[in-house]
Amino acid sequence: MKEIIENKDNLKLVKPTMDYKEQVMNYRKVFLEKDESFDGCSGLEDCETYEEWIDFENRLLKKYKNDYVPSTVYLAIRCSDDKLVGIIDFKHTLSEFLFKYGGNIGYSVLPEERRKGYAKEMLRKLLDNCREYNIDKVLLTCDKNNVGSYKTIIDNGGILENEVIDEVGLTKSGIIQRYWIKL
Questions:
Q1: Is the dihedral of CA 74, 75, 80, 82 positive or negative?
Q2: DSSP letter at 115?
Q3: 167 is in which domain, residue-wise?
Q4: DSSP type of residue 46
């Protein structure tokens, strides 16, 4: 998979490198302080160090065992000032849990950078890259009350399949919306 997804409209997606260590750990701190959901962050909330976090495969394989699926994490970097504004994760396949509750793609944006179109652009860029995996559609889920997220999904072609009761505690509303996007 590409190391950098091309820049358009002042945003690029890059795989995590040591260049962004401080910004990622600050992102973690902000999300913990504000009790934000770490969607698309590939377990950042569980990691005390950046080095631990970027060891994605080993760490997540230990955590999820047989339910582990390979994924690719990208940092959304604003080009004008090289600032981390969001994180997005693409799970290459779906486990039973991901099919029911989590989907192929998760993302989050720093609270102070929301409502600027970054999530929509992050998802658009990632969807272009997902086509390299020869899959014809991806699943995205969100909390029924997360207006910003479901608008982002719909704006990128998401079609609501259904809503399911959140039996695992991922949402505030208790309802998970499941959207499919054709690639």
A1: negative
A2: T
A3: 4-182
A4: G
Report the first-to-last Cα separation within the chain, whole angstroms.
Answer: 16
Whether 113 and 85 have beta carbons less than 8 Å apart is answered as: yes
Angle between helices 147-155 and 118-130 (to 10 degrees): 40
In the three-class reduction of DSSP (H, G, I as helix; E, B as strand; rest coil), residue 37 is classed as coil
Q: pTM of the prediction?
A: 0.93
The H or E element containing residue 4 is: strand 4-8
Q: Which residues pair with 113 in a beta bridge?
A: none
d(CA 136, CA 178): 16
If we measure between CA atoms, which residue out of 85, 107, 95 comes closest to residue 158? 107
Q: State pLDDT tens for residues 149-175.
A: 999 999 999 999 999 999 999 999 999
- With CA atoms as reference, report the closest residue to 148 among 128, 177, 174, 168: 177
pLDDT digits (tens, 9 = 90+) for 79-94: 999 999 999 999 999 9
Please give the tally of structural domains in the chain.
1
| 143 touches 149 (CB < 8 A) | yes
Q: What's the CATH code of the domain at 111?
A: 3.40.630.30
